[in-house]
Amino acid sequence: MIHIDNLGKAYNAVKVLDIEQLEIPQGQSFGLVGNNGAGKTTLFRLILDLIQANSGQVLSKNIAVHADSQWKNYTGSFLDEGFLIDFLKPEEYFKFIADINGVTKEELQAFYNDFADFFGDEILNKNKYVRDFSKGNQKKIGIFGAIISQPEVLILDEPFANLDPSSQIRLKMLLKDLHQKKNLTMLISSHDLNHIAEVSERIVILEKGQVVKDLFTSNDTLEELEGYFNPEAAVKAES
Ligand SMILES: Nc1ncnc2c1ncn2[C@@H]1O[C@H](COP(=O)(O)OP(=O)(O)OP(=O)(O)O)[C@@H](O)[C@H]1O
């Protein structure tokens, strides 16, 4: 589905991403982890053709994303607040996305029903512009906006960050459900190892722009991730 081919990105001659080959098959839930500055957002920005690579390319359904915008018809994403239209109210923003994607009123209502608990009493009927919502609630608006376009590929950068614990748990359930029911290809980055292990079938660790681990999720994955990011604690636990 998504194929990374010799992808390189540098800023001021410093290489921040360097991935030889990475294949994300259709229907996979793919988790991306790595310390601050590891290159996670850069990789997502390259996949979404928001920045230009210095070398290599990203293919979506075998077509280079920088050469043809076909992929935009089936890809939903939310990386940051820059993806929002901040002078609209949430309902106007959602209707705008629904209209350009041919989502019917009934389909949109079904999404509202599914996301009622996730939204709580915080998002709808507030008579407030997107820009006036809290960071966490803006994130909820952005995630919902990415999902209602009914994409085949969903890309979310740190979706759990800024969300309260109940919302994090609800989001995990919603993502798992979407992935199972719609065979969604999901690319999600997170610093929360528990959450990412729970929603991903596969987890890639980036370090200084390079893939250093590529794991298929099992019962041992969380321990392996914790061991990687906190090796001293893992050694102590063993002794
Ligand atoms: N526009 C830019 N100009 C210069 N350097 C940049 C730019 N964008 C990203 N970088 C650098 O690229 C590297 C990778 O950044 P990136 O945001 O992809 O990391 P990340 O893994 O998403 O980090 P975090 O977990 O902190 O969000 C960092 O060193 C960052 O400073």
From TrEMBL:
GO terms for MF: ATP binding; ATP hydrolysis activity
A Pfam family: ABC_tran
Entry-linked CDD domains: ABC_DR_subfamily_A
InterPro entries for the chain: AAA+_ATPase, ABC_transporter-like_ATP-bd, ABC_Transporter_VariousFunc, P-loop_NTPase
UniProt KW keywords: ATP-binding, Nucleotide-binding, Transport
Domain ABC transporter: 2-233
Name of the protein in its database record: ATP-binding protein
